């Protein structure tokens, strides 16, 4: 356990937390996780949000899902969404490179093991889409950190731990084994 003093400026809206982490983190997958949350907070479910949702589902061809349609995103829409994300939030954003990384079990496993931030561990773990026998663990992983369940004001999840230790300890046991090169 690590004690971290909480200062007045540490209590922020989740939107500020997301934007701060997008601006300061180096890892593109982690930045994209916070960016997707930021889009959802602003209720912006356009091309960019759909591109990020497709990224975390590992789709080589991104999809556009709205209340009225569910279809593959044509290349020009993908390019427009990618350009928008690059211009406004993540200059290095490259969907094809990131989806390749998301689909690489070893890469996501390494990111999971490298971060000490429980929130990021949970979000990375969700990429594996593993079902757990324990309903409490499964509900916590799949439901607790959906955007609609985030608090209006909270501490930065990258700086302050908010995930119960028993959940964090259970995730590594459920990770898929590292893949060996063929």
Explain what the structure shows.
The chain is mainly α and 182 residues long. It has one domain. The chain has nine helices and four strands; from the N terminus they run E-H-H-H-E-E-H-H-H-H-H-E-H. The chain has a two-stranded antiparallel ribbon. Helix 3 crosses helix 4 (75-88) and helix 3 (47-56) packs parallel to helix 5 (95-102). The N and C termini lie far apart (40 Å). The mean pLDDT is 85.
The average pLDDT is 85
User: Which ranges are low-confidence, i.e. pLDDT below 50, for 5 or more consecutive residues?
Assistant: none
Number of domains: 1
What oligomeric arrangement do these chains adopt? single chain
Q: Strand tally, please? A: 4
- The gross shape turns out to be globular
Helix content: 40-55%
- Summed up, the helix count is 9
Sheet bearing the most strands, described?
2 strands, antiparallel
Radius of gyration: 17 Å
Head-to-tail CA distance between termini: 40 Å
By secondary-structure content and strand pairing, the structural class works out as mainly alpha
- What is the helix/strand order? EHHHEEHHHHHEH
Classify the beta-strand content into a percent band.
5-15%
Q: If strands are numbered along the chain, what order do they take across the biggest sheet?
A: 1-4
């Amino acid at each position: 356990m690590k004690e971290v003093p909480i200062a007045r400026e540490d209590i922020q809206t989740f939107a500020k937390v997301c934007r701060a982490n997008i601006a300061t983190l180096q890892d593109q997958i982690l930045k994209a996780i916070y960016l997707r949350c930021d889009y959802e907070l602003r209720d912006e479910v356009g091309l960019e949000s759909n591109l990020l949702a497709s990224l975390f589902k590992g789709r080589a061809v991104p999809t556009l899902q709205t209340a009225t349609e569910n279809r593959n995103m044509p290349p020009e829409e993908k390019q427009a969404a990618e350009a928008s994300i690059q211009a406004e939030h993540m200059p290095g954003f490259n969907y094809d490179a990131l989806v390749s990384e998301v689909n690489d079990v070893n890469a996501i496993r390494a990111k999971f093991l490298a971060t000490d931030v429980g929130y990021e561990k949970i979000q990375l773990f969700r990429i594996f889409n593993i079902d757990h026998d324990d309903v409490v663990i499964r509900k916590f992983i799949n439901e607790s950190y959906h955007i609609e369940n985030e608090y209006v004001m909270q501490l930065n999840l990258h700086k302050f731990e908010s995930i119960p230790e028993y959940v964090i300890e259970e995730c590594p046991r459920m990770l898929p084994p590292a893949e060996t090169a063929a």
